[in-house]
From TrEMBL:
CDD domains tied to this protein: crotonase-like
Protein name from the UniProt record: Enoyl-CoA hydratase/carnithine racemase
GO biological process assignments: fatty acid beta-oxidation
Family label: Belongs to the enoyl-CoA hydratase/isomerase family.
Gene3D superfamilies: 2-enoyl-CoA Hydratase, Chain A, domain 1, Lyase 2-enoyl-coa Hydratase, Chain A, domain 2
């Protein structure tokens, strides 16, 4: 666990069998920096190596947001499609590492879990959300980048293909109620009861056979792995190397609507 106030990912033990993993960047609603993705990967390695951990609870710091995607300022240094490929691979490793934790994971979602926040929530096994939680990746309206096939596969599993594509194509967010209807959100919980409900679920999971929990996690991972193409570097290069992506980043940071050219 770290104690500094800079953007970071930390984890700590809560009792005997529960790990608590937190994204902390409150000034930008817990949007992740590139270093935070690296810290997430490292934290998951440490959690997996910790004796006796049987469940991990994942949350955003504070009460304003789970994670509002990636910190857009990270994209200002991109000059080519190769930068986009490197970024997607770096983020993909962290997301895959979260999904590959040997024990069940519970995401506690307050407020926005958008962009990468939705993908991180989708990488958890159980999602508890407050009524004001929102999900989605409105990149068609904001940045003009793309999603990894593995991310799409996780969203299809949670929201269904049709609902996912409609939200992506129209750059609209999915409400907590809609996400619960599709099964992406396991339960909608009032904010004041969220921590207690997470603790109840954690305790119940921790009381189950550890090898059974690990086997179920691995079986689930193998099911998902059969549906995901190996890579999409060509798509990353096209989007991140485009003039439209540079325009999207500039427009986002200057708080204006982007003007798309299709190149």
């Amino acid at each position: 666990m770290t104690g500094h106030s800079e953007p970071h990912v930390r984890w700590e033990r809560d009792g005997t069998h529960t790990a608590c993993l937190t994204f902390s960047h409150p000034r930008l609603r817990n949007a992740l920096t590139l270093s935070m993705y690296d810290e997430l990967e490292k934290a998951c390695d440490e959690i997996d190596a910790a004796d006796g951990v049987r469940v991990t609870v994942v949350r955003g710091a504070g009460e304003a947001a789970f994670a509002a995607g990636t910190d857009i300022r990270e994209f200002t240094s991109f000059t080519s499609g190769a930068d986009g490929i490197a970024y997607e691979h770096r983020v993909g490793r962290a997301v895959d590492r979260l999904a590959a934790l040997r024990m069940p994971t519970i995401a506690i979602v307050r407020g926005p879990a958008v962009g990468a926040g939705t993908i991180l929530a989708a990488s958890c096994d159980i999602v508890l959300a407050t009524p004001d939680a929102t999900f989605g990746a409105p990149i068609g309206r904001t940045l003009g980048n793309c999603l990894a096939p593995a991310a799409l596969a996780r969203l299809y599993t949670g929201f269904g293909r049709s609902r996912t594509l409609q939200a992506l194509y129209t750059a609209q967010l999915i409400t907590a109620a809609q996400a619960h209807e599709t099964g992406f959100v396991s339960e909608i919980v009032p904010p004041e009861a969220l921590e207690e409900r997470a603790a109840e679920l954690s305790s119940r999971i921790a009381g189950c056979a550890p090898l059974t929990l690990a086997a179920l996690k691995e079986a689930d991972r193998r099911v998902l792995a059969t549906t995901v193409p190996a890579h999409a570097d060509d798509l990353y290069a096209t989007c991140y190397g485009s003039r439209d992506f540079a325009e999207g980043v500039t427009a986002f940071l200057t708080k204006r609507a982007p003007v798309w050219e299709g190149r």
